[in-house]
Amino acid sequence: MDFVKNLDADMSLAILSCLDDPSDLVRASAVSRYWRAFVIKQSLSKKLCLKLFPQLTCVDRILETSSEVSTSEAGSSSSSSLIDDDDTRLLEREHRVYALLTKQCTSSPIQSCIDDAITASSSDRLPAESIVNTLYERDRVGRTPSYWSSSGHHNPSVPETLLYQLKADLCLITQLSIHPFQVYFHPGRPIYSSHYVRFRLGHLDNHSQDKNNYVWSYTSQQFPMAQENRLQNFKLPEPVLCIGGYLLVEFLGRVQICDIDGLYYICVTHVKAMGRSLAKSFRVVDPDKSGKFGLKVLSYSDPQEMNDDKEEEAGSMRNRDVEQILNLLHMHPTNVQYVSSESDEDYESDEDEV
Fold first, then answer.
1. Alpha-carbon distance 78 to 29, whole Å?
2. DSSP secondary structure string, 188-202?
3. DSSP of 146-159, one letter per residue?
4. Minimal CA–CA distance to 225: which of 256, 254, 194, 199?
5. Could you report the per-residue pLDDT of 140-160, keeping only the tens digit for each?
6. Of 193, 271, 192, 269, whose CA–CA distance to 233 is shortest?
7. Do residues 95 and 43 touch, judged by C-beta distance below 8 A?
8. Which member of 82, 200, 313, 314 has the greatest number of CB atoms within 10 A?
9. How many other C-beta atoms lie within 10 A of the C-beta of residue 63?
């Protein structure tokens, strides 16, 4: 029995609303033209997407490029006659967009999401101890240490922050990791970590006269950090959708005092954010302080079929390698031996979850 045709709409809606896997909802819409029309008219794709990712309730408008509109409308014309003409375009567009959003947020590959280092609240010595060094997993280049260091303070409660730009202005973040730096060239090989770390996700405030003003739509709990030389993983209670593409790392409380000058420092080898990038399919448009934003569809194609990601990432890493080497040469003009990360014998890559 075709229950969608034979049961009343409320009962059919109650049954199909039990589907919590986007793939199952896609399969249901493919059963027949009538089922597809019902799924679209009841906005089931949108409801499931907002249920799984409530941050998307802040979408106040959807934009499509002309090429994507013509392509998508050609593929959905078969069901339009079964939907009231006045609602056809809006409902079918929402169905397409939210079905793709849900698919991207649940099935696209998990990868490193940090694209660039923007700024640090302080740095002890530039360019040798720049935030740029935290983009790399290695703690040295040849015989030269590679890390970021804050400036020193007598007060151990002074916080520090590191600001990063993500690979997309719409990223689903699942885990964040930090590797404190062990200063192996200081007596006792101290580790200048912090007591706690906190993460913020958000966007640049385009309506502010201050070009460095950010709006943070998500703030994590405070995670305790271990004073240990290892990559420490901080798994969020639930994956978080970053709207706007910026990550702020806050270090709270200084642990280690430097025996040389009697000041407290925070030193970090590497910062990593893992998640799903939606860069190929979507772009955030004009987010405001209230959190509302427009969502532009760039492509309905499967991002996994687009093969230029690895080439772009390799080119970006080459540029960073050059920048890091130039920074080190500036600080140590006669004593830098470059060794690729694969041959750094002293690099420790143990990963333990906090």
1. 12
2. T--B--EEEEEEEEE
3. --EEPPPBS-TT--
4. 194
5. 988 899 999 999 999 999 999
6. 271
7. yes
8. 200
9. 15
Q: Strand, helix or coil at 348?
A: coil
- On average, the pLDDT of the chain sits at 83
**187 preceded by a cis bond (ω within 30 of 0):** no
The pTM score is 0.82
Other Cβ atoms less than 10 A from the Cβ of 73: the count is 16
Q: For tokens 């260091």, what's the residue?
A: 149
Tokens matching residue 219: 């703030």
Only one residue has tokens 């941050």, namely: 55
170 CB contacts (<8 Å, ≥6 apart)? 241, 242, 243, 245, 278, 279, 282, 283, 284, 295
353, β-bridge pairs: 233
Residue 136 has a pLDDT of 94
- Provide CB contacts within 8 A for 268, sequence distance 6+: 134, 147, 148, 162, 178, 179, 180, 181, 251
Q: Which tokens hold the place of 190?
A: 């101290």
Contact (CB, 8 A) for 181 and 269: yes
* Residue burial 4-36, b: 16+ Cβ < 10 Å; e: rest: beeeeeeebbeebeebeebeebbebbeeeeebb
Kindly report, residue by residue over 244-274, the tens digit of the pLDDT.
999 999 999 999 999 999 999 999 999 999 9
Which among 180, 175, 150, 352 has a CA at the least distance from the CA of 276? 175
Give the residue carrying structure tokens 């970090």: 268
Rounded CA separation 33/80 (Å) = 9
Where does the pLDDT of residue 331 fall: very low under 50, low under 70, confident under 90, or very high at 90 and above? low
3 state DSSP class of 40: helix
Phi, psi angle pair for 314, to nearest 5°: -65, -40
| Chain position carrying tokens 């896997």 | 21
**Structure-token pair, residue 277:** 């990038």
